[in-house]
Design brief:
Blueprint lengths: L1 H11 L8 H24 L6 H5 L6 H28 L7 H15 L4 E5 L1 H11 L6 E5 L6 H10 L5 H10 L4 H8 L13 H13 L2 H11 L5 E4 L6 E8 L3 E6 L1 H7 L2 E8 L7 H8 L3 E4 L4 H9 L2 H9 L3 E5 L14 H12 L6 E5 L26 E5 L12 H11 L1
Parallel strand pairs: 1-2, 1-7, 2-3, 7-8, 8-9, 9-10
Antiparallel strand pairs: 4-5, 4-6
């Protein structure tokens, strides 16, 4: 049984795409050349002592001798390689050779995956990233810097750093399956102390910004700590405030400042914009958009997570100029104080009203509305109401999470997007 498993493990190292066979061939060629050189040396020393008659198996018929020596040589090479592999990897992994072979194969496959840029923020974007990282490591996440609520808002006001919360969520979502490290990064301190409601990851990123001297370097180094599959970038490095014009039935139009205040103010959102509105985009984000195979906006809060990135003019222009497939992922459920009563067409209309038509010619929406969940007041599944004069293409699929049907399922969403490619 053990021998059979060892043979399967050995064959797994020869799986196409793992990047091992070329080096095994090089190793075998080197051994063959060394053997040829050693044989030539023995010929120069001929006649040899009688003991070499037995050491070279001259008493065995030539055909059988060739097969026997070849098999023994191959077995010794394979055993030696496995032992070297175990010795070198022992300090870093605690798995068997089969798991290591699978890990290397999956790493190579992800390395060859499509270049995907995801735009947004909040928990919706993290759901998308958990699905995508299983298929490609060429992921770039562009995150809004307009967050001013909770722990991020306090750090932003007290220390003058860009809000780290959405970056922390994306880094954790892209991390390898190191459950303890990721949980530690997401750990939030409880009440009753000066760290009340702060996340350890937020404090870590803030401290890293102080140590490295820049917020973007802090994000890069934080990603390395968790060995993430991809990279996380800000849409801009400037300090911006998200503004909104809200329409109330009695008070007309009310202007609200601050991302966290918009959903709490009440009223219908007519438009959102940045203050100042002419901030430059982060150059690496623009480069990633122009080099992408797929650009995905959402899922996430439409007005407070997705649009703040696209309101950076250079970001929107880069999306428009890119040759990538561009997809807007509509939310599964509405959001109180932001998209109350919205259907798919309302989401798209709001997007186009802010950034123009056809920026995202494909809209991916959930069509599984036959689910039951205890929806809080003002929250409902987004209806598939499609405008007759729509200029975009609607692609629908079952995207709901079986456990939390008001959210996207990571794997379903990733599969649907990759199918479009």
């Amino acid at each position: 049984m053990t021998t059979h498993k060892q043979i399967q493990t050995a064959l797994k190292w020869l799986t196409p795409g793992i990047g091992i066979k070329r080096w095994l061939l090089l190793l075998a060629s080197g051994i063959a050349l060394l053997s040829l050189g050693f044989g030539s040396l023995l010929r120069q020393l001929y006649p040899l002592p009688d003991i070499f008659y037995y050491l070279t198996f001259q008493f065995i018929p030539p055909a059988l001798r060739i097969v026997l020596v070849g098999l023994v040589g191959i077995a010794m090479v394979i055993l030696g390689l496995f032992r070297i592999n175990q010795t070198l990897l022992a300090p870093f992994v605690h798995t068997d050779s089969e798991t290591v072979a699978n890990a290397i194969y999956q790493y190579r496959q992800r390395e060859r995956g499509p270049k995907i840029v995801a735009i947004g923020g909040g928990h919706g974007l993290a759901v998308l990233l958990r699905g995508l990282k299983r298929h490609t490591s060429n992921i770039t996440v562009i995150v809004t810097v307009a967050d001013d609520g909770g722990s991020s808002g306090r750090l932003r006001r007290d220390l003058g750093v860009l809000p780290p919360g959405d970056f922390r969520n994306c880094i954790a979502a892209l991390a390898n399956d190191e459950a303890l490290t990721t949980q530690l990064f997401q750990y939030r301190f409880g009440d009753g102390n000066s760290l009340n409601s702060h996340s350890l990851g937020n404090l870590f990123i803030t401290a890293m910004a102080e140590v490295t001297g820049s917020f973007e370097r802090a994000i890069l180094e934080s990603g390395r700590v968790l060995a993430i599959q991809g990279r996380v970038l800000p849409s801009t490095l400037r300090d911006v405030t998200l503004m909104a014009d809200l329409r109330a039935e009695s008070a007309g139009v009310n202007r609200v400042a601050g991302e966290s205040s918009i959903t709490q103010a009440g009223g219908i959102i007519e438009r959102v914009y940045l203050e100042p509105d002419d901030v430059p985009a982060y150059p690496e984000a623009v480069h990633a958009l122009l080099d992408a195979d797929l650009i995905v906006a959402g899922p996430g809060s439409l007005y407070t997570s997705v649009l703040p990135n696209l309101l950076v003019q250079d970001i929107a222009q880069a999306v428009r100029a890119s040759r990538a497939l561009k997809v807007y992922v509509c939310n599964v459920a509405t959001q109180r104080g932001e998209t109350d009563g919205y259907g798919v067409s309302h989401h798209v209309a709001a997007l186009e009203a802010h950034v123009g038509q056809s920026l995202f010619p494909i809209v991916l929406a959930n069509d599984n509305l036959d689910v039951n969940f205890d929806a809080p007041p003002g929250v409902a599944l987004v209806a598939m109401n499609i405008s007759a004069d729509a200029t975009h293409r609607i692609v629908s699929a079952d995207l709901t999470d079986p456990v939390h049907p008001w959210r996207h399922d990571s794997d379903k969403l990733a599969q649907a997007l990759l199918k479009l490619l």
